[in-house]
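Weekly puzzle thread! Below is a chain. First person to post its structure in token form gets bragging rights.
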Amino acid sequence: VQLVESGGGLVQAGGSLRLSCVASGLSPDDYVIGWYRQAPGKQREGVSCISSRDGSQYIADSVKGRFTISRDDAKNTVYLQMNSLKPEDTAVYYCFTTGPYWGQGTPVTVSE
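Winning reply:
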């Protein structure tokens, strides 16, 4: 399994970013794929995930109403649309899937 993230960067508070995670080698039957994040000096935090089986989703309370997860099965890609970004969203964002398997991470920095 290989996960490759992209889309991170520097953005001002209130701005938007869309993270992408291209996955390869996934089981075609049943897996969960999504995003964690780790801010400097803090533990890794689950942000959002989606089930391949039924499309059910989890989204953390801290980002609910601002972040949206989606997937494009034809492209083997899962997205995290992040709107109304806040400085406290600054972190390295990691794609993960059942295994668990992890991507290399993509940094997001939100300035005041």
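Puzzle host: Confirmed. Bonus trivia for everyone else. The chain has a mean pLDDT of 96.
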